[in-house]
Queue: 3 jobs
Job 1
Amino acid sequence: MAMEAKEQVATATAGYSNGTTLNGYHDSPSAKPVREPLVLGNKTIHQITEDICGVAEQKATPKFWAALLASILVAGAGIGALTYTIAVGIGVWGLNNTIGWGWDITNFVFWVGIGHAGTLISAVLFLFRQKWRTAINRSAEAMTIFAVINAAVFVLTHTGRPWLDYWLLPYPNQMKMWVNFRSPLEWDVFAVSTYFTISLLFWFTGLVPDLASLRNRAKTKLAKAGYTVFSLGWTGSTRNWHHYEFAYMIFAGLSTPLVLSVHSIVSFDFAVSILPGWHTTIFPPYFVAGAIFSGFAMVLTLMLVAREILDLHDYITLKHIDNMNKIILATGMIVGYAYAMEMFIAYYSGNPYERFVFFNRAFGDYAWSYWMMVTCNVISPQFFWNAKLRRNVWFTFVLSIFVNIGMWFERFTIISTSLHHGYLPSSWHYYTPTWVEITIFIGTFGLFMVFFLLFAKYLPIIALGEVKSIMPGAQPSHHHHDDHGEHGDYYNTGHYAESNDVQAKH
Amino acid sequence: MTTVEKGNVIAVMGDYKNADKVTAAAKGIHAAGYTKFDIYTPYPVHGLEKAMGMPKTSLPKFALAGGLFGLASAFALQYWTGGIEYKLNIGGKPLFAPQFGVPVFFELMVLCTGLTVFFTMFGYLNRLPNWHSKYQYDAGFQAATDDNFCVVLEADDPRFTIETAQALLTKLGADNVRVVHETIEQD
């Protein structure tokens, strides 16, 4: 380990001398305790372009095609099951008169929740000037968009007659009917479609300058044409950056309350009803925290894989993983607190129906699902109190999958347990999904992977311009007052990396 | 596709390799009274637009207008459809009330603000898409999307002469000061 660290210092120093003067900027003599750098390997601005554009420019490997093919097959199975559902009707699902929402809405809430991490990273962390976000925001935003597409698959199919889904929108029609704005389901139509549109615009806005970088390097005619069209003719003009930066800030400012509103409104689908187990005021913050929790877990799951396959160790460092794990720990505890508070309020309300539902949730027919949720969401993140485990790539990967599973079970638990034993014992029922629902759900993972693989192959997976702008010396030195914090004077101290970072690289 | 260089001079360009020097240069060019010049950078450099003497962006005004439009439409839509056009009693709930209107007020406001900002910023303020730039054959200009800070003094500027422009950029420490000619594409 020590040997490797020495090697790293050696290459880093070599890189320094032939680098541009950009890196020489932190020439203050004070060698204070330093922060970890955001990008390892002492890179020049040009190297960053080479590294990140290189990912998109290299020839697709057989591994990539194999992964893409596998994902297409899985997605295809899902689309088959979806087609079958639409052709025959949602009677092919396991729903019954008592349980009208099953895997469809569980999966809808699950996928919408996954999207929240992307917006949180791109918008909230931007407003808080968290520079580490630049390594992960692009792919997390992409995941948001793909996740919302998957969510739409479920919510648009569960209407039963998806070819009439345009009825969800208020438009003048020959029936002289209008949508019911008093229904939270209608609020959801507006929330989710706004969320999708704004996320897409935000993502595309971020992509434009990076696509211009790819355009100027493109070798083949097809790549050149594609990148040219979508980069809109971006040149990097300061007269353009000026407006661009402001637009980016407005998008971040819009997305921050938007991301909170979306899952709040999704939770209204439940909370505004009068069903014990759903009718609780804690739902909006509880759902938002859960969404961020699950979203970060999903971002980690995919990013850790992408980091290995595409060799992005210098950009997605252990510091990023550590930071994300801290957010998982924090949101995991908010979720855990919400579970406890729900139980307490059910007891404290004195309402027998409320009490019954929660007792039944923990010890009834679906107890297995409840305890699965508690184990994955409340107990498993506690390991992240340990700094070593937060920086352990394999541990993080496994735990992120646990969190994904736990958060899926949370939604399933909330939906099924509240519905299956309602006010009328004569209509109590149990719900099990059929192969159709299961296939559609698995299929959406395939679809997600198809989108993600294509994105990772053909688009800049790391926000090129943004990473460049946070490099040491990238900004004029009189601007140090707003640069403090995230990068210190590590170039002068030699503490450019922690030894375990180096270890993970090899 | 072949390209032929024509005689017309369109600009004098110079390169910089770091943000401090290019910011100082921007101040110098602005002080010299140039108005038609631009600096092409790989990422937004803080304070460069101020050094160039650019006015504040008018984008926030558009954003506000978009937001207010969205809010007003959301109000009109819910009030008119529910309270006037299609009065449907649902569980005795009021036909219109601002409380249940809040989610749609908010969402349409955000949606309209976002769309306005997107199209105003790219389409109106930055005049994009524009798939051709007359400078695009210059290697230093192209490298601005990589790691070059390329200063362009445009020939349209009333103060522009080849000699003074070159002298100014040289004085301000630019590398590779060059006269750029118009390029015509020929098949």
Job 2
Amino acid sequence: MKRTPEIFDKIEGYLNNTLSENEYADFEKEITANPELAQEVEKHRALHTILGDTDTLAFKEKLVKISTRIKEEEVSNNTPSNRFANYWKIAASIAIILGLGTFFWYTSTSTHDKTKELYLAYYQPFPIEDVTRGNTDTTLQHIMQHYSNKSYDSVVTALRGYANLANQEPLQLYLGNSYLNTNQEKKALSLFENIPNTSTYNEVATWYIALTHLKLNQPKKTIRLLKKIISYDGTYKTKASNLLKRLSE
Amino acid sequence: MNNTEDQKILKGIVAGDEGVLTKFYKDNIKYIRPYILRNSGCEEDVEDVFQDGLVFIYQKLKEDTIKIEPSSSFRSYFFGVCKNIWRNRLRKNKRLVVTEDMSDDEEMIDPEVLTDIEDRDREHVYRTHFMNLSDTCREVLNLLFLGKSMKEISETTGYTEGYTRKKKFECKESLLQMIEKDPIYQELHQDSEKE
């Protein structure tokens, strides 16, 4: 059954009991006569019932936030400033015994740990939005399903050869994120950087460029981009400010 | 189950007390992790299962239907729930391969609860995909599921009524498609058709 805004409105009116008496009776007849419509109504009903339980949804969201906070705390506890005393003692001992070369090696390893942990704490895949609009492109729907299931290899294979990729910036972001999750950072960078300054997706693309540099342990480049995002003053400003603060600690 | 500490945890869960939840999270996720990682799971699965285990407990507490044997601790009950959620998902998602014999774990939990876990797995699919939507989609759909009209949604969000209606359709359609393509949903759907 083809999904349209009109059918959705009707189903929602039926479920929320906002149809007139006649409309309600007519729609019930339609449901009885059309099993496909009946199935669609049940799908909407399940959606409204399960996701209308806002207490449980809020509880789940709270758990996700707690999990993020715990990860951030772990990163914070492992940063060089918090481990300064032990770190310094170890580094000094090593430097004395083995010379300054080892000391610099240790510093660089430690910075890498920090950027890696911050990347894990701040990176989230670009959310799935309304890319499947129009609903006729089943190939694209399959691709997005792979993305949702985190089968990033399959997304890369499918999107790389997708005919309309060049015209659709969200798809470039999905492909870039899939590259990022399959350790192909250079390819990810080239896609994100391709999104022009004039695009509404430029801010989010800049955010992912910053994170890609973080993953590559290039914090100076990340910092420069974060400052750009902060001065843009858009959706990613708070995230960028927090990450910048953590990187500067 | 009379342990005062357990009672405190249960009260904290049902009240959504962040302090209690954070402590419970930190103290216990490490016990679930090895089990899931040994059995085809990844770090993300560990978080999902742990959180869905807590959601399951939360719902049972709200409904006042939780039954923990007096001889059992809440923690072992919770681990049983998590392990069974994961077993259930492994069974449903045929792409995953079980590498460990998990037959003994079934004894850890009441058969009624096992059925309950299976039934509620559909809800987890809905919530997970919903939470993967963009902030705008979540905001619009949240209000829709609360029974708000397009006019009320547009007043709350500040979007025009036309944009709200368009967004509502696109977001809901996208959500339905994600859910329908989820292997766990497909398996549950086939099971319900057989019944």
Job 3
Amino acid sequence: MISYPRPDELPDDQRVVITGMGLTSPNGNSPSEFRCGLLEGRSGVQDYEVRYFGKTLAGICDFDVKRHQTRKDARRGTRAGSVGIYCANEALLDSGLDVDNIDRSRIGIYVGVTEHGNVETESEIFEIKGFDYDTKFWSHHHNPRTVANNPAGEIALNMGITGPHYTIGAACAAGNAGLIQGLQMLRLRECDVALAGGVSESIHTFGIFAGFASQGALASHTDATKASRPFDANRNGIVVAEGGCLYTLERLADAKARDAQIIAEIVGYGMNTDATDFVLPNSERQAQCMRMALNRACINFDDVNVVSTHATGTGMGDTLEIAAVREVFGESEKTHVNNAKSFIGHTMGAAGALELAGNLMGFSDGVVHPTINLDDVDPECDMVQLVKNQPREIGQVDYILNNSFGMLGINSALVVKRV
Amino acid sequence: MAPEEIRSAIIDILGDIAPDEDLSTLDDAVAFRDQLELDSMDFLDIVMELRKRYRVQVPEEDYTALNSMASTVEYLTPKMVDVVAT
């Protein structure tokens, strides 16, 4: 492995810290609401119905779109854009930066997405069906809504940000990938403030439900709140969810200079590729990815207090990830393992960023949120350190490792440190 | 449709396109752009909605006729004379 300098020996202008957070999840529209939901065992999964597919389940967000966006802009734009606008505004406000006087040409926007454009394309096809598929009725809004940079671009338009903006397409590793991109751009001095993370509007496309159903990977349950059950023996697939989480990232030197709140420091990350299958994960590569992140953070596996797993509730995926976690962390008694999808479902492009947010308050309260719906733990997924159904007080949390993996074999792991 | 019905139809369309605007004070003689925040994409929305709701085609060379409410109603009256108000 490559040898990296210890993060705390890097100059402050090469160290990147989180100074603000903005999020919407199916069980909360702020970091504190979300955290409370995770500690109180509150699910955000509901009954849902989507065009063509019919009745199913989903994690649905109820943030106030109008808080940061006009009704006209919400109509013109996309749901992913509205999610991003809400999260970005909240993240910047939370950072305490002087939003009226900040140099907006030095803000970069890096938004991870699993996919984009399916919702809008499906809607237009549905619309022109009513006109016998005459393309004269196809909307002029289609292209600006479906360009791959749309969610990040809508944030830029809304906030008057003139620095770089783009989305990072990284399947369900996208939330972490957005954060890693933001960190790298800060280190390269391409921007002074990065709004980074991920968003998802996926519940508004029938295709994602139908695709998972055809794959035998869509969750079902008579009680919606019980449907998302990673690591449980009776898990039967993914609950699709929408959501978003963006962070304000700054170089440590800049954060110190303005006496900013520092929520955490990003000290390590790894990204690699399975190169083995379109959909099946590769445990060996996942373990390698986690070790890359630990190596960059210059820490040992048993320095990590919390591993936030990616597990989505599929038979094979959960088993393979736990095998990778066991491979890296063994039976480290200091390392506690949890999963936020059991509460909110799979928020796709937002998942990595949101699930990290659910754990960050552990730095201040010393509590690890649980994995819920573990009524009958699958022996293949069981670990001594798995936090089951109830929060666990562990005293002090110093390091969190956040996994996020996606189709086409994309893996990411992020290590954040208490400051 | 009579001119007053066409005006009402345009108000409905504007209400959807520009939901944040107060249309009750619209001055029919003044250009839309001078009293509402409308851009070129919004005018294309008006054209599209006329096509979808009433099957009325507004060719590109006639877009300037959609300058104000008065000019729009005047332009559309002969085109929509056979359209039945719903």
